[in-house]
Amino acid sequence: MLYCPNCDNEYEEGLTACPDCGRPLEAAALEEAENPDIVLVPVYEAPNAYTAELVKGILEGEGIEVMLDGERTAVFDGVLSVESGSWGQVLVKDEDAERSLEIIAAYEKQAASTGGADDTA
Ligand SMILES: [Zn+2]
Asked: Residue 22 Cα, ligand 1 centroid: separation in angstroms?
């Protein structure tokens, strides 16, 4: 996607100058630039957006970068299968996966003993 820095309009690839003002178009910066070197692995399958956000918040509280598959699907107009019965996956970087699993396991144990997140189901 290209945009005109003068008019602030977006244009399709292929144009080199703004049709309105003639100013050279610039490549629009992606809001969330993805680093292709980072490998994301699923650590939790969330039944709904609420649970996904909950787990995300817990992991982020531990300093772990989290990405939600449902969120990513929205951004890329993608291919999430809604027939799977789950909302989407909680993804973390490969290097954080083991710690994330431990944190989630500890959370689920706690939630089960205190009657937490799953009670509303
Ligand atoms: Zn323009």
From this structure: 6
